[in-house]
Design a protein that fits this description.
The chain contains nine helices and eleven strands. It has a five-stranded parallel β-sheet, with helices on both faces. Strands 6-7-8-9 form a four-stranded antiparallel β-sheet, with helices on one face. A hairpin with a 4-residue loop joins strand 7 and strand 8. The radius of gyration is 18 Å and the shape is globular.
Length: about 230
């Protein structure tokens, strides 16, 4: 993780101190924020490779910060939550987070999540073994700019998170091929990703809300019940 830059957001100074020390041992550059407003200022003013964002913050909650960051950035965000309730974790993903870690946590687990989430999937592995993957792919009103990592519907850009883009990229380059949830988790998040398949379900649902005219009757990303998901290309 050398050369990478992280933002840690938590109002507990001891937690920040521990995470910061551990990440700096991996030669990461680390900034720290202690409330939601300060976190937004950092996120708007700097380019980060990862943001660790606590849910319970002064001024603005972690969910509010995450939602506002998603209006201008697709930087990977890992939510830090002291609550063990699954709905709180899923809520974090719904607001645009890429992953979550429940307190108290082992710093090695946090670093494993960071490494897994920052590891970009090899484009060759996504689209096949072609030497030069296509720069863009289109289907109907949907266009994916692979070099710029942007998506458009009818010429209008839609904001996708890093993982949403990678899921859509994989599906679009392999139309009508059904991927299991486990398969998507392994290909997009990495074989060593410690999360579970519910992460895939949340990202698919959020993706549909952004690219489908009617998410309950999708045109592009379909479900093969009992099997997985696929991109329909007529």
């Amino acid at each position: 993780m050398a050369g990478k830059r992280a933002l840690i957001v938590d109002d507990e100074k001891l937690i920040i101190k521990g995470i910061r020390y551990s990440l700096e041992q991996d030669d990461m550059q680390v900034d720290c924020a202690y409330d939601g407003e300060e976190a937004l200022e950092y996120a708007r003013s700097n380019q980060y490779d990862i943001i660790l964002l606590d849910v319970m913050l002064p001024k603005l909650t972690g969910f509010e910060v995450c939602q506002q960051i998603r209006e201008f950035s697709s930087v990977p965000i890992i939510m830090l939550t002291a609550k063990g309730d699954d709905m709180d974790k899923i809520l974090g993903l719904e607001y645009g987070a890429d992953d979550y870690v429940t307190k108290p946590f082992n710093i090695l687990e946090v670093k494993a999540r960071i490494k897994a989430i920052m590891r970009r999937v090899d484009p060759k592995r996504l689209v096949g073994e072609t030497a030069a993957p296509p720069k863009a792919v289109e289907s109907g009103d949907l266009r994916l700019d692979c070099e710029g990592r942007r998506a458009y519907i009818a010429g209008k850009e839609i904001g996708l998170t890093a993982k949403e883009f990678e899921v859509l990229e994989l599906l679009m380059f392999n139309p009508n091929k059904v991927y299991s949830r486990e398969g998507l988790l392994s290909l997009v998040w990495g074989a060593d990703y410690p999360g579970d398949v519910r992460t895939v379900d949340v990202h698919i649902r959020r993706l549909r809300e952004k690219i489908e005219l009617n998410p309950s009757e999708p045109r592009y990303v379909h479900t093969k019940w009992g099997v997985g998901y696929y991109f329909y290309n007529a």
